[in-house]
């Protein structure tokens, strides 16, 4: 049985090196980060992704195995090279992306590779919009979410808009995301994506229309707001001084991986089991995870573990 199964992209993140114009190879991809975050929170995770039959693809699959995540679609493809993302960081550690994906191997994941038995053995299935943009991976992602919904499993989705993947067509991304929202229980959206769902004021109607149980808007260093039932819960997070921020890559995934992991640690198996106290606890846990993540470079390398998060809570007198 898996606690979390993720589906979507695993890519090579080329992060800026010490010398100007140099880059360092790292494993990346939002669904991969969430799966690894789950393992570091002492949960069992598996991931459906597709990589190229090349050195980069082998590196990514080896990374999953090293991190304790089961590679659920381990066959590498010859149809495209492993997808690559070149990350640029500004003076505040904020990042922008340039993708090599014309096509990329992540697009080649097929629905036939998604096992109904694996989905039924999981507690939560998580996906994101990157894999809805192009290729076979779109149908694979939708198939996984549908199987999870039909089996009564928790379903999580991260809008995670990347303009290059969608050819700068934010409206198209919003349309495709809108088609799958009835399958989703937990929706993550950033403050930069809030317009894609009609603005903050439209969230209650969005939840009612699609049967969403929880919508979380991440607010960067200002924490997050969680919409639930007829109200919302705000957690202002744990701001990090700009001089201590090394890299914001993966911070949102660290937050979401921590949030989802905490929900499962607290025993949530169905939306009806969620309480406001559980949400407050999970928001705090996720915000600590995100805060710890930005203090070092590399999305995966900086993902904190459960012991680190609990030590932070103890040090700061946080209890639930």
Description:
The protein has 320 residues and is an alpha/beta fold. The chain has a single domain, classed as 3-Layer(aba) Sandwich (UDP-N-acetylmuramoyl-L-alanine:D-glutamate ligase). 32% of the residues lie in helices and 21% in strands. The protein has helices spanning 30-40, 55-66, 116-120, 137-150, 170-180, 203-210, 251-265, 276-293, 306-315; strands at residues 2-7, 11-16, 23-28, 45-48, 70-71, 84-89, 95-100, 122-128, 154-158, 186-190, 214-218, 224-228, 231-235. It has a nine-stranded mixed sheet with strand order 5-4-1-8-9-10-11-12-13, with helices on both faces. A four-stranded mixed sheet has the order 3-2-6-7. Helix 5 links the parallel strand 9 (154-158) and strand 10. Helix 1 crosses helix 7 (251-265) and helix 8 packs across helix 9. The protein is globular and about 50 Å long. It starts with a strand and ends in a 5-residue tail after the last helix. The mean pLDDT is 94.
List the helices and strands and how they pair.
Layout: E1 2-7, E2 11-16, E3 23-28, H1 30-40, E4 45-48, H2 55-66, E5 70-71, E6 84-89, E7 95-100, H3 116-120, E8 122-128, H4 137-150, E9 154-158, H5 170-180, E10 186-190, H6 203-210, E11 214-218, E12 224-228, E13 231-235, H7 251-265, H8 276-293, H9 306-315
Parallel strand pairs: 1-4, 1-8, 2-6, 4-5, 8-9, 9-10, 10-11
Antiparallel strand pairs: 2-3, 6-7, 11-12, 12-13
Helix pairs in contact: 1-7, 7-8, 8-9
Quick rundown:
This protein is 32% helix and 21% strand. By secondary structure, it is α/β, with parallel strands linked by helices. The radius of gyration is 18 Å and the shape is globular.
């Amino acid at each position: 049985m898996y606690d979390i199964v993720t589906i979507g992209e695993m890519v090579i993140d080329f992060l800026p090196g010490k010398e100007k114009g140099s880059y360092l190879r790292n494993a990346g991809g939002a669904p991969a980060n969430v799966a690894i975050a789950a393992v570091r929170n002492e949960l069992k995770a598996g991931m459906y992704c597709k990589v190229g039959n090349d050195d980069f693809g082998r590196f990514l699959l080896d990374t999953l195995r090293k991190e304790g995540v089961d590679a659920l679609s381990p066959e590498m493809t010859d149809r495209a090279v492993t997808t690559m993302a070149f990350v640029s960081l500004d003076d505040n550690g904020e990042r922008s992306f340039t993708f090599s994906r014309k096509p990329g191997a992540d697009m080649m994941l097929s629905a036939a590779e998604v096992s109904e038995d694996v989905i039924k053995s999981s507690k939560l299935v998580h996906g994101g919009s990157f894999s809805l943009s192009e290729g076979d991976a779109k149908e694979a992602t939708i198939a996984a979410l549908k199987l999870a919904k039909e089996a009564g499993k928790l379903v999580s989705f991260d809008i995670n808009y990347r303009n290059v993947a969608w050819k700068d067509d934010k409206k198209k991304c919003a349309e495709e995301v809108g088609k799958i929202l009835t399958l989703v229980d937990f929706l993550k959206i950033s403050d930069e994506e809030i317009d894609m769902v009609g603005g903050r004021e439209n969230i209650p109607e969005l939840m009612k229309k699609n049967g969403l149980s929880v919508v979380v808007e991440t607010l960067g260093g200002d924490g997050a707001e969680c919409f639930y039932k007829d109200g919302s819960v705000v957690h202002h997070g744990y701001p990090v001084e700009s001089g201590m921020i090394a890299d914001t890559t993966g911070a949102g995934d660290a937050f979401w991986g921590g949030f989802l992991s905490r929900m499962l640690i607290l025993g949530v198996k169905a939306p009806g089991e969620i309480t406001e106290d559980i949400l407050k606890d999970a928001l705090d846990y996720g915000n600590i995870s995100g805060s710890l993540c930005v203090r070092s470079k590399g999305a995966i390398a900086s993902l904190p573990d459960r012991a680190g998060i609990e030590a932070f809570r103890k040090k700061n007198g946080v209890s639930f």
